[in-house]
Amino acid sequence: MIWAIGDLQGCFDSFTSLLEKINFNHEKDQLWLVGDLVNRGNNSLETLEYVYKHRDSIKVVLGNHDISLIAAYYEIKKTNSFIEPIIKSPKADEYINWLRAMPFLHIDENTNYCMSHAGIAPIFDLDEARKWSDALHKKMIEDDVKQWLKNIIKNKSSVLRYGISNEEDEAYAFSSFTRIRYCFEDGSLELENKSNPGDKKEIENTTPWFDLKTRKKIEKKIIFGHWSTLGLYQDENVIALDTGCVWGGKLSAFNLDTQTIVSVDCKGSV
């Protein structure tokens, strides 16, 4: 069995409760995690320790909070009480080196699914998305990752466009995998609005990235998280799994083999 689970964000008790509910077996099953393993939840270290221990049966993609942990480790961003235990852990180097080697996009050639934390930019087809995931992954594992990460994080633009420059294109791809929610009609990223589409708070001429009429066809169904206000959502092209556990909602798992969804209530929140 293959199960995909939404954003954990350090909610370790909910995570283990969900694994128990789905009868997950690390010896024969596989787990996909949509990123944001840590931060905001009180048991981020325990969560990361567990995922690392069972890494042979788990596929992980990088989320924005995982990037924030890596940046804090390199003293690019400030730490906080949620991730400080990870940074102070005797195995911090080991955990961070493993985490920064995780991809931005996971494509399973044996199923009809792929996975990224926030989504795939609507101007990318699957080959283009794979190309950018590989390019960003290469940057993340290089020795000078600190300077590269510092440069890409300092781009605070609320709108990112593609085709401007190599630096801007890199920031666009980076944000499309880790931060995307809404897009403008030309595929530019609008990175401020976090509301549910049903709230009708969209900035003018924007739409959820997966609903853009000109979105390039992706041959596989995209599993993603990141958008807690969207919650559980699925159509023929995507399935969203961030059901807001860290905010007092639920933690949800999707079975790729049976297309069933199983959830547990939050066990403690911020």
TrEMBL record:
Top-level class of the enzyme under EC nomenclature: hydrolase
Any single GO CC term annotated in Swiss-Prot or TrEMBL for this entry: cytoplasm
Keywords associated with the record: Hydrolase
Hydrolase recorded as keyword: yes
GO molecular function, one term: bis(5'-nucleosyl)-tetraphosphatase (symmetrical) activity
All residue ranges annotated as the Calcineurin-like phosphoesterase domain in the record: 2-151
Coiled-coil regions listed: none
Gene Ontology annotations of biological process type: RNA decapping
Keyword ATP-binding: no
EC number(s) given by UniProt: 3.6.1.41
Catalysis performed (reactions): P(1),P(4)-bis(5'-adenosyl) tetraphosphate + H2O = 2 ADP + 2 H(+)
Function summary: Hydrolyzes diadenosine 5',5'''-P1,P4-tetraphosphate to yield ADP.
PANTHER family listed in its UniProt record: BIS(5'-NUCLEOSYL)-TETRAPHOSPHATASE [SYMMETRICAL], METALLOPHOSPHOESTERASE
Family, similarity comment: Belongs to the Ap4A hydrolase family.
Protein name (record): bis(5'-nucleosyl)-tetraphosphatase (symmetrical)
Record gene name: apaH
